[in-house]
Task: structure prediction
Amino acid sequence: MTSTTDKIKGTANEIVGKGKQAVGKSVGNESLQGEGAAQEIKGKAQNLKGDVKDAFKDGIDKA
Result:
């Protein structure tokens, strides 16, 4: 995957995760809240992976 793809998927996972947390909280479903939190964390990790790929590519381009 490219860094852009990682960032797009990461952002999508963060948004969906936050939504699941909100729905879980509003209906009192702790399992859904936990699932949402895990998905949000996964999204943040994907965004970080994209940032690392960009930094690595920038380092190679400058060398």
Q: What stands out?
A: Residues 6 and 30 are 28 Å apart (CA to CA). The chain has two helices and no strands.
